[in-house]
Write a structure and sequence with these properties.
The protein is mostly helical. It contains 7 helices and no strands. InterPro entries: DUF6979 (IPR053917).
Length: 123
């Protein structure tokens, strides 16, 4: 499991157990997972997680209808989540083909990890 997947799972835990808001939970989780300042500031994985959280795709995390849902990163996160939820055995390669995007930033890893740990859900 890559660092961003670990961060997403830890951030989800912080939201549920500590009642943190999603951005704060991500920021706290990422510094416990990696010491790399570059990795800590990476936007794609963070936006993937926040997109899923705000859209209601995370178990025990309430959707935020006032949150920004636009943007290519958030849309791609929701599309990836829908594909994985519809077909849990889909491979990363098949997902890339279906979404016509090869993820190199860890977004798909986040979606797969959340699903494998029972955190991902259909809103």
């Amino acid at each position: 499991m890559n660092n961003y997947a670990k961060t997403a799972l830890k951030a989800h835990s912080l939201i549920v157990q500590e009642c943190m808001d999603p951005p704060e939970a991500w920021n706290q989780a990422v510094v416990t997972v990696t010491n790399s300042k570059t990795s800590q500031k990476k936007g794609c994985p963070r936006n993937t997680f926040l997109g899923l959280a705000y859209a209601g795709y995370l178990k025990d995390v309430y959707a935020d209808p006032s949150a920004k849902h636009e943007g290519v990163l958030r849309r791609r996160a929701l599309d990836a989540a829908d594909a994985v939820l519809a077909r849990p055995t889909i491979s990363k390669q098949e997902l890339s083909s279906q979404l016509e995007y090869v993820d190199k930033q860890g977004a798909y890893d986040i979606v797969f990890a959340l699903n494998e740990h029972g955190v991902l859900k259909k809103p």
